[in-house]
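Lab channel / #folding
Pinned by the channel admin:
"Please post every new chain as: sequence first, then the structure tokens as a reply. Keep commentary short and put observations after the output so the thread stays searchable."

First post following the new format, from NK:
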Amino acid sequence: MQKATTSSLHLVGLLSNAEVHSSQEVLFALLRMAKNHGVTNVFVHGILDGKDVPIRTADAFVEAVEVKMTEMQIGKIATLCGRYYAMDKDENWELTARVYTMLVYSEGERIRDAVTAVRRSFLRGISDEYIRPIVLEDEEGNPIGSIKDGDVVIFFNHRGDGMRQLVKALLRDELHTNRPATHMVCLTEYDENLSLPVAFPKEPHQNVLVEIFSNYNIKNCRIAEGDKIHFVSDFFNVGFKADDERRVIIPAVKNYMLAPEMASFKITDAVLQRIEADEEDVFIVDFSAPDVLASSGDLQRTIESIQFVDTCIGAIVKRVLQIDGVVVLTSTHGHCEELLTFNGKNPAITSFNKVPFHLIDKRADGIKLREEGSLRDIAPTILGILGISKPDEMTGEDLRENV
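Reply from TO:
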């Protein structure tokens, strides 16, 4: 923060209260910190949500930030754009390039009022996450705050998967000497290969599920579509380096509205092929289509995606039972089961409903599952199925009764 007292401080992140990728309170805390350190030139580069929060709410989040900055007497909004551009995860670098040129070269729609800019996009039929780059300018028509040599850039998203591409695009190295020579800091570790300062490094976790797999030489395979592989690998591993896992990444579909099944059938084929190869003991598989389609707000397409995934899961369950295996079917969060609100509108956000947990096992006669369970109970249950005692670090319990 000290370096920003002689240059400019840029705060880049998602303006949202969903707390899936970012937190408003973190942004406000950074503004307070800048104020306390005597930083005067502070610019917010806001990414607009509309995916983890209801659509057409970006103007309210932008206004809330402006009110807070006025109250604290520090900071200005310099740029805005939707997360479709700023948080791409599928290596669509042309989208990331649009954001880079907005941040560095002030390319985008020029306007003096941030809230007005967002509402104009709404009037054009463009929702929050698809709002194109907007550059705020002063009374003389000059950009309020582009990123320049010597500036400090803090990325305040706490989740890294949506920020990696943008951070890499701004990172100056021997191959990209034309990029601004900035001092960049990430709130958390977005990618260990970035070699950037991290405000809150990862805390080490002991005896996580995949570590126990490794200790017992349990070979495991992770299968998912596109960037969803991170959910069954990096996030699932909680920082543990698993040497005995195989990752199968199925190419993501380009337009899920035209293909509501997404890559579900290819994922199923990959699972069945790996089962036949008989080289792994555990398969961790992600079917993301229902959640992704639910985010679109299209009820019919979401129903179709569920039907496709139901068929795929049925094929996998059938084969696993044929070889006397066990299937655990669950989810991290809800979404498509509550697609409409009480007034008939689609919130397009994840729900807080309890998720199902299904144990499919031919040898499970007489075994009941506890009524009140938690996600923390899943790992101990999996270990119990494998005949392995859970470590003390796991606070959950086996969901099975009468075992």
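NK: The chain has two domains: 2-194, 209-401.
TO: also worth noting, The radius of gyration is 23 Å.
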